[in-house]
Amino acid sequence: MLAVLRDVTVARAGVSPLYRSLVDTPRALHLARTALAGLPPGKPEVRAFSPSPLAAFLAYDPDEGRRLAEEVLGGVLDQPAGERDILLETLQAYLSHGGSSEHAAQVLHCHANTVRYRLRRIRELTGRSLTDPRTVAELVTAIQALHLNPGHRTHGSSSAAQPTESDN
Questions:
Q1: What is the rounded CA–CA span in Å between residue 107 and residue 95?
Q2: What domains sit in the chain, N to C, each tagged with a CATH number?
């Protein structure tokens, strides 16, 4: 269904996870609007909200998500835009590919040693180790919060898209 929507879309659209009862409609609408808010304005695109329970939890308190992201990733977020974006992209690729530097490197089109260097830099900037399960959970949560609020990747910035188009 998403593939069909993406092929024919002429506007921005957010899509909620599947739900089975009408009583869940307000929650689904909120999650669809959250997905929509993460899309760049002016570009026709469809974005499905993550089925992850963590993403749903963060969507209900975006201010806390931003605070958490800044606390966990503050040192990374304080870097110049180019370096910040590369480090965040590397961390996202690493976490999305099961903690494999090799798989992240393939996705990022770089050498695995480059990924490892960037991960060491993230550890230096955040004080969080990628071998400690609790700090990995914090990093995963912070990256998810940034993904839900892409306009808030730097301290003090704010730009959220208004959910004025298709909300489901």
A1: 12
A2: 2-49 (no CATH), 62-152 (1.10.10.2840)
